[in-house]
Amino acid sequence: MLIAEFRDIFRTIRSSHFGCFRAVIFEYFGFWNLVDWAAIASGAVAAIFSSATFFYIDQVNGLLPGMIAQSLSPGDPTDANSRQAYEAIARDFFVAVEQMSSATSVGSIAIVLYPLLSLQDLVSFNISLCF
């Protein structure tokens, strides 16, 4: 889709009697082209946040064994150092879980939007056949 949009831009610039900037602004940009670019942006965001989600999942998985080990053998409850060590591990673990959750939520929204925006090509093609 990205390559097709760049080809469309270059075709518009070549066939235009205006300069490059004016050709793109006044002749290329229209409703359907903006929807195409929204689909491209949504796909890019989905890919980026999916990759980030895998990174954060790996980070959480790396912290999980330490969290489990500290939870199963917390040490002396009256020892301040033992409690601080547990709190530090728990804090790091839950920060990583929060980052993973936020990357997953943004990525999920983009993954839902991408097919919806991509379907507009099919809809616009069918509409053009009707007229």
Features:
mainly alpha, 0% strand, rod-shaped
Can you walk through the features of this model?
- With 131 residues, the chain is mostly helical.
- The chain has one domain (30-130).
- The chain is built from four helices and no strands.
- Helix 1 crosses helix 2 and helix 3 (31-72) runs antiparallel to helix 4.
- The longest helix has 51 residues, at 80-130.
Low-confidence stretches: none
Number of helices: 4
SSE order in H/E notation? HHHH
Query: What is the beta-strand fraction?
Result: under 5%
Describe the biggest sheet?
none
Structure summarized in a few sentences:
This protein is mostly helical. The protein is built from four helices and no strands.
Describe the SSE topology.
Elements: H1 2-15, H2 20-28, H3 31-72, H4 80-130
